[in-house]
Amino acid sequence: MVIASPKGVFDILPGSDEPWKDSSIWQHVERSCREVARLYGFLEARTPAFERTELFTRGVGETTDIVSKEMYTFEDKGGRSISLRPEGTAPLIRALLTSGQQLSGLQKLFYIGPMWRYERQQAGRYRQHHQFGVEAIGDPSPERDAELMDLLMSLFQRLGLTGLKLMINSIGDLEDRVAYKKALINYLTPKRSQLSEDSQRRLELNPLRILDSKDAADQEILQGCPTIFEYLSEGSRAHFVEVQHVLERLAVPFSVEPRLVRGLDYYTRTVFEITAPQLGAQNSLGGGGRYDQLIQQLGGPASPALGFGVGLERVIQTMCAQEVELPEPPRPKLLLLPIGGGARHAAFGLLKRLRQGGVATEIELIEGKLKAALRKAASSQIPFVAVIGDEELAKGSCELKEMATHKSLTVRLEDLGNHV
Ligand code: HAM
């Protein structure tokens, strides 16, 4: 019996029956992420798949869904509580703080990798998903907020995506939020019994998260609730206004959504999210914001920072739904087809020389009819086939077939690389 994969995960394979799981699209998207990161001055960071659980309870927040319900937490053989990383920001900050490097000046880093969340399985939600994340540490300027959103939108443009919506909001500093939370609780408490069960629970623990509720009755109640704008300090307000000005100057379209909040506790001031109409309920392609107090919360110096994470599954699914043009998957340029024992022997040396010369080459070793082998080459879209029989070999040549034109040419073996 074949052992099935665990629930909520998937494989990325060449020629996968579901196009979004095809490895060539993933390579293309990851290449684009790297290229955009390079253009915007971000260098790559890689952190371990697991961390001490404490990093996430302290960094992401104990009452968040991610930490309270979704972490893959286990005790290792030494009795330590370990969690698979559910997100990349806290680990990256931990890496900087433990690296011994001075956190001075601006640091711009990016990462691509899997994250794990024990979520209820549904379209667009996986127990292992992949994120492209960028983090800019050490700069409080509102221009940086706009720069990051511009990076994100230019990545999506490069990938051919259209019709996406960038929503932004300011959730203020911690102090602004204390007053706002109070106002929200005052507004919601008399309506408590009409709220969904989840929102009732959040009313004490994390009232801001109620703003994000998908429940229709909750949304109805929220229509008249106070907005955060009335509670922003002068500094937070000026910051948010400037972010919008810079976005306008950069011609990045956005909308201000006063009820936009995010599912992680570390945000301050600017938060943003990008949605795609094709994705249904799980329509967030990516999101992020400032986290000016996280570094200190994790034991480091006071240092402003911001970043975002993009879910690559959802990006690729949206690309497939929008039928964007994709580059050709990588495939060999040339197939060697030796016929007979001597040819087979000689072809292997030739194969190595061609590959060393930079020609992606494959060899057919399963002996069969010539016609069948040619058909196979055509179906795998290899543009050239070199037929090497013992007779040709004796003359130091082979018959080169161009599959698209059906033209054949006798070519000397040492010249083969120049012909394809
Ligand atoms: P997040 O919003 O939790 O933010 O995740 C970022 C993106 O990852 C989401 O918008 C979504 O596309 C994708 N994603 C999250 N969970 C799943 C899942 N179960 N299945 C598929 N895709 C998923 C963060 O993780 C923050 N660390 C982002 C950040 C970086 N903020 C500042 N810096």
Task: Tell me what the structure shows.
This protein has 15 helices and 16 strands. It is α+β, with helices and mostly antiparallel strands and 420 residues long. α1 runs antiparallel to α5 and α5 packs parallel to α9. The chain starts with 22 loop residues before the first helix and ends with a helix. The model has no long low-confidence stretch (mean pLDDT 94). The structure holds histidyl-adenosine monophosphate. Histidyl-adenosine monophosphate (HAM) binds next to β6, β10, β11 and α11.
Write the layout of secondary structure elements.
Elements: H1 23-39, E1 43-44, E2 50-52, H2 53-61, H3 65-69, E3 73-75, E4 81-84, H4 89-98, E5 107-116, E6 128-137, H5 142-158, E7 165-170, H6 174-188, H7 197-205, H8 216-222, H9 234-249, E8 255-256, E9 268-275, E10 284-290, H10 294-297, E11 305-311, H11 312-321, E12 334-339, H12 341-356, E13 361-363, H13 370-379, E14 384-389, H14 390-394, E15 397-402, E16 407-412, H15 416-419
Parallel strand pairs: 1-5, 7-8, 12-13, 12-14
Antiparallel strand pairs: 2-4, 3-4, 5-6, 6-11, 7-9, 9-10, 10-11, 14-15, 15-16
Helix pairs in contact: 1-5, 5-9
Bound molecules: histidyl-adenosine monophosphate (HAM).
The site of histidyl-adenosine monophosphate has 25 residues, from strand 6, strand 10, strand 11 and helix 11.
Strand order of the largest sheet: 1-5-6-11-10-9-7-8
Could you estimate the helical fraction of the residues in percent?
25-40%
Query: Unreliable stretches, pLDDT < 50, 5 or more residues?
Result: none
Broad shape? elongated
Catalogue the ligands: histidyl-adenosine monophosphate
What is the count of helical runs?
Answer: 15
Content-based structural category? alpha+beta
- Intertermini distance: 45 Å
Q: How big is the Rg? A: 28 Å
The share of residues in extended strands comes to 15-25%
Largest sheet: 8 strands, mixed
Mean pLDDT: 94
Number of strands: 16
